Amino acid sequence: MIGTRARTAAAALAVGAALAGCATRQADRPAAEPEPTAATTSTAAASPSATGPGAVPPVELRLAFAGDVHFTGRTLRLLDDPRTAFGPIVPVLRDADLTLVNLETAVTSRGTAQPKRYQFRSPETAYPALRAAGIDAVSLANNHTLDYGRVGLLDTLDAAADVDFPVFGAGRTADAAYAPWLSTVKGVRVAALGLSQVHELAAQWQATETRPGIAMAFDTDRAVAAVRAARDRADLVVVFMHWGIEGDPCPTGEMKTFARRLAAAGADIVIGAHAHTLLADGWLGRTYVHYGLGNFLWYGGSRSTDSGVLRLTVRGRTVTRTEFLPATVSGTGQPVLASGAAKGRIEDRIATAKRCTGLTAKRP
């Protein structure tokens, strides 16, 4: 396990590389925790780069996003074969140029359970499973990354580094936690940041200059500054938020206010998770916002089994097409694309949820 380091880093890298061969896309992955002064960059497809910030190559990117993922309870057994852990949804995830989800767990076998109702942890084979599914990076800015304390968080970061799997939204210091993951995809420099707006244990879990933790939205000045800094370094800025009220398909006033701050700071796309139910999407000026993608690969009962994959087509900084593929969390915990009446029911719920977003239906 991570704590004992019984295996070598070289062995871990070999496992990750073998499983990566199952994906249809290949990338030179950046270090899991980018240096705050010079975040690392990966290349997801060979193509000439832009000449400077804002000089966006005239190419289309296809992005995919999904919600909360962990390997606990019924989903733990899926890691018996990490290559097949995500099941039949994998072709949808692999089809995009860049795919991001929220990893809702500590990756550790150590640490002390924190004083909260639910504690989630997964073995380190979670990362090869994510890579085999075609997922390029994950946000760790959520209310479960420190479920087993700072020991568990450091194990989570170390396990990602061991197999060179990109994570963002958490780090050994505040500078690292708020730093973006930078990746060049078809010549477009993409920055992804993770922020949490969940109040539970927020003060204790926030990263500081001397303490590992996650990036919190409550430090508004720092969070907004991080987005502005990413704007200066990237062509496209994505913010993955953890926010909302569990079971509530409507965004809170706190969410709406912060979304406006993110848009003003230069975020092009804002994606949400945490509420364990689907929320809806729309526009804040030219910024595309989806308030909540629900559960994706999930351990057991929850407030809703409704799920799905959000697919965006982007040209330059502009989202030109949005598509949500409804899915259902199945009895195995794996998401399965919905059809027929089930698909229609999910689409109807999302249409109802759109009424409370406060967002415009079309891009200006």
Description:
The chain is built from nine helices and 19 strands. The protein has 364 residues and is of the alpha/beta class. It has a single domain, classed as Metallo-dependent phosphatases (Purple Acid Phosphatase, chain A, domain 2). The strands form four sheets. Strands 2, 3, 6, 7, 16, 17, 18 and 19 form an eight-stranded mixed sheet that branches. A hairpin with a 2-residue loop joins strand 17 and strand 18. The longest helix is centred in the middle third of the chain and has 14 residues. The chain starts with 8 loop residues before the first helix and ends in an 11-residue tail after the last helix. The N terminus is likely disordered.
Number of helices: 9
Helix content class: 10-25%
Strand tally, please?
A: 19
Overall 3D geometry? Answer: globular
Tags for this model:
alpha/beta, Purple Acid Phosphatase, chain A, domain 2, globular, 7-stranded mixed beta sheet
SSE order and pairing:
Elements: H1 9-20, E1 41-43, E2 60-69, H2 90-94, E3 98-103, E4 106-107, E5 121-122, H3 126-132, E6 137-139, H4 149-162, E7 167-168, E8 170-171, H5 174-178, E9 181-185, E10 188-196, H6 202-205, E11 213-214, H7 220-233, E12 236-242, H8 253-265, E13 269-273, E14 281-284, E15 287-290, E16 295-297, E17 306-315, E18 318-329, E19 335-337, H9 340-353
Parallel strand pairs: 1-9, 2-3, 2-16, 3-6, 4-5, 6-7, 10-12, 12-13, 13-15
Antiparallel strand pairs: 2-17, 8-11, 9-10, 14-15, 17-18, 18-19
Helix pairs in contact: 1-3, 7-8
